[in-house]
Amino acid sequence: MLSVWLFLSFFVLLFVFFVSVFFRIQLFSEMMMYALFAWFAIVPLIVIYIESSRYEMKEKEKKSKKKGKKG
Hints:
By secondary structure, the chain is mainly α. It has helices at 2-22, 26-70. The chain is built from two helices and no strands. Helix 1 (2-22) runs antiparallel to helix 2. The two termini are 35 Å apart.
C-alpha cells in the first residue's frame, strides 16, 4: 500500500506545479519542475527497495514456519 501512495504522490506534485504555473509563480514553478524530475528518478528506486524488503521478510517467515513444524 505504501508503494501505491508513493506513486499517487506524483499527482499531488503535478497539481501543485500546475497551480504555480497558472498563478505565474516562476521560482516555485521551477522548483516544482525539478521536484517532478527528481520524483521520476528517486521514487521508482524507493518502491523497488520496499517491495524487495517485503519479499525477503515473507521468505524469512516461510522458512521459520517450516522449521517450527519440523521441530
